[in-house]
């Protein structure tokens, strides 16, 4: 199950709007330990608050967005610090090797996106 915020963000983007915490407020009242977040306040000019059905239509896209965010974070960590990357690039240029490209290809193949 994806986050409500992710689905709302996709709804906003589809309607040429961006997330603005002064215009939308989410709340979760947790009933019997069960999370049930909802839109508490909605103040976007020219855009109606999304219905549950509209938000549900973004489930697959929101799932892909959240999954890719985790993959991106993992890739950023595995790419190493930029100083190390620059050192690999310099050595590749100097020695005619492909260490940096090979490293990036491995990070991508180890962490594929859908």
List keywords for this structure.
114 residues, 2 domains, mainly alpha, two-stranded antiparallel sheet, 5 helices, single chain
Would you mind describing this structure in some detail?
By secondary structure, the chain is mostly helical. It is built from 5 helices and 2 strands; from the N terminus they run H-E-E-H-H-H-H. The model has no long low-confidence stretch (mean pLDDT 95). The protein is elongated, with a radius of gyration of 21 Å. The chain has a two-stranded antiparallel sheet with strand order 1-2. It starts with a helix and ends with a helix.
What's a quick, concise take on this entry?
The chain is mainly alpha-helical. It is built from 5 helices and 2 strands; from the N terminus they run αββαααα.
Describe the secondary structure blueprint for this structure.
Elements: H1 4-14, E1 24-28, E2 37-42, H2 52-56, H3 59-79, H4 82-95, H5 99-110
Antiparallel strand pairs: 1-2
Assess the beta-strand content as a share of residues: 5-15%
Major sheet: arrangement of strands: 1-2
Helix/strand structural class: mainly alpha
What overall form do the CA principal axes indicate? Answer: elongated
Average pLDDT reading:
95
